[in-house]
From TrEMBL:
The lineage of its organism: Bacteria, Bacillati, Bacillota, Clostridia, Lachnospirales. InterPro entries: MurNAc-LAA_cat (IPR002508), N-acetylmuramoyl_amidase_3 (IPR050695). Residues 1-21 form the signal peptide. The keyword Hydrolase applies. Pfam families: Amidase_3 (PF01520). GO terms for molecular function: N-acetylmuramoyl-L-alanine amidase activity. One of its GO terms (biological process) is peptidoglycan catabolic process. It comes from Hespellia stercorisuis DSM 15480. Keywords: Hydrolase, Signal. Residues 34-143 are annotated as: Disordered. Residues 189-308 form the MurNAc-LAA domain. It comes from the Bacteria. This is N-acetylmuramoyl-L-alanine amidase. One of its GO terms (cellular component) is outer membrane-bounded periplasmic space. Residues 34-91 have a biased composition (Basic and acidic residues).
Length: 313
């Protein structure tokens, strides 16, 4: 092979070597680039996954916070509703109590005397264990101008009083609701004592030889009463409340609360007791007014107001 051919062959070898080396470098560069891209993609995937995880955690946290907030709001709403219901119940109870202040209270009312009077010669002890004997009952007085018997006036007022008290929630025990029976003072007191009543109010009307005498008064046992002196204080408070309210409602003169230990019906009482002498049937003005149906409503309202005052209503 001549020298020229050798040189050409050598050149070709060099060119081939250079081409091969260049191709390898290109390949290497491609591999490096591919690995870099792969690594970049992997890093991007990791970042994306991390970002997704953070997002998911935030969403989960936000969801839990929203649930907690919702639960707190529901609990707050429930408490508010319960509080509103409690207040409403209290208001309704207060309104009911105001409308019916007598709920749970028992009042015994004794319409004094009666037409079928017991034999005046038939007597009974003036007090428990007493040797002093008194008539079991009398027919009472009557209106000097109206002719109305006291026993009828007492019953009329007592029946109206029962209706008025029951409308306020009181339980009322009447010793009688008719004139067609006979009851002694002791028997009347026994009805009141056995009824579970808190108080015993005896309804009467007064009479006097002096036609000018007028007004209302109350009779109660004294603190020295041998049978129930321990009832003086509550009886006095009851009588003061009823008499003051009664006179205020009727305009009758207030003759005060008087102690009298001769009253059989009072002496046999085991609960606070009073006699209300509503007015004088021997006085023209008192008699005419007490016989009037509309005025009796005022009389009853006064007694009701007094009973409410006694109970602190």
């Amino acid at each position: 092979m001549n020298k020229k051919k050798k040189m050409i062959l050598a050149g070709c070898c060099v060119i081939a070597a250079l081409a091969l080396g260049g191709g390898y470098l290109v390949y290497q560069n491609q591999q490096v680039r591919a690995e870099a891209e792969k690594k970049s993609e992997e890093q991007a995937a990791v970042k994306k996954e991390a970002a997704a995880k953070v997002k998911a955690e935030k969403e989960e946290k936000a969801e839990k916070e929203a649930e907690a907030q919702k639960k707190a709001e529901e609990e707050a709403q429930k408490k508010a509703e319960e509080e509103a219901a409690r207040k409403k119940a209290e208001e309704e109870a207060a309104a009911q109590a105001a409308a019916k202040p007598g709920t749970g209270k028992i009042v015994a009312i004794d319409p004094g005397h009666m037409s079928q009077s017991v034999d005046p010669y038939d007597t009974e002890p003036n007090g428990p264990g007493s040797d002093e004997m008194k008539a079991k009952d009398t027919s009472g007085t009557s209106g000097s101008y109206t002719g109305l018997p006291e026993y009828q006036l007492n019953l009329d007022v007592s029946l109206k009083l029962r209706t008025a008290l029951e409308a306020l929630g009181y339980q009322v025990v009447l010793t009688r609701d008719t004139n067609d029976l006979k009851l002694s003072c002791i028997e009347r007191a026994a009805i009141a004592n056995d009824s579970g009543a808190d108080i015993y109010i005896r309804i009467h009307a007064n009479g006097s030889e002096n036609g000018d005498a007028s007004g209302a008064l109350a009779l109660i046992p004294s603190a020295e009463n041998a049978y129930n002196g321990n009832l003086y204080e509550p009886s006095n408070r009851l009588a003061q409340c009823v008499l003051d309210a009664y006179c205020g409602a009727t305009g009758f003169g207030n003759l005060g609360v008087q102690c009298n230990d001769t009253m059989t019906g009072n002496n046999w009482s085991s609960i606070p007791v009073m006699i209300l002498e509503m007015g004088f049937m021997t006085n023209e003005s008192d008699d005419m007014q007490m016989a009037d149906d509309a005025f009796q409503n005022a009389m009853v309202q006064g007694i009701v107001d007094g009973i409410n005052a006694y109970y602190g209503q």
